[in-house]
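Section 5.1 Outputs to date
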Amino acid sequence: MDKSIKLGFEMECLEISISSILPGRVIDDRVRKSAKYASILSSIQEIGLIEPLAVYPLKQTASSNYMLLDGHLRMEALKELGYESVSCLISTDDEAYTYNHKVNRLVPIQEHFMIMRALERGVSEARIAKVLQVDVARIREKRNLLRDICPEAVEILKNMPISASAIKHLRKVKPLRQVEIAELMQMLGNYEASYCQTLVTTTPADQMVDSVKTRKNCNISPEELARMQRELDTLQHNLQMREDSYGENFLNLVVIRGYLSKLLSNERVVHYLSSNHADLVKGLQQITASA
């Protein structure tokens, strides 16, 4: 059996006539009037196409046509701007699920890095705002996103979907606590601003940047904060214990399920269990069925 890995796309992009690309859906006027479409149109108009379209060659047709898998808004914008051809990524499969559901979009911290690189190369804030169809103030907010956030916390969160609001709360604590909160958020997979705010609120005063200013509107008493901190520490400890034992428990479950599957493939064993332990065999079958 050939165990080589088949690539999901060709290694080189191909310049294809837009008239040869068949879209999978129609872009109506409602979509053309949306902010997302306006942003794409402006971006292509200012700096050209960045992300190529994903297409699949239709070999069964007489002419060299391609089915569009991803990039319907980009292609519509290219048509509107008068482009006749476009750079395309050639897929080796006609499925569109990967491109529409498994493509990673930029998270806020990566947006910050992208904007900082553009600024370092001499692109003005005004031009970036024009390309993205946003106010210059938004670009400045993204530029200052990581102000007062320590590098260690940034490293933990750089690829995570943490919002600007959550990062704003994170600024209120000192670097060591920032790292602790970042690790907690990563451990639980919870990057909501409300969760970050809760962790900041339960932070001891000596780990706050400005404890008086931060807590002046807080209606929680020092005793309640101390209790919440103890409960949070206990939760973190228990979570770490579960995480440490998860791998071993999962491996044991796989081995047990494999053994039970082999056992239940024996007709004599199943017949005996069904006759004498009907409730037991049903439970065992449920275990083997849970993959």
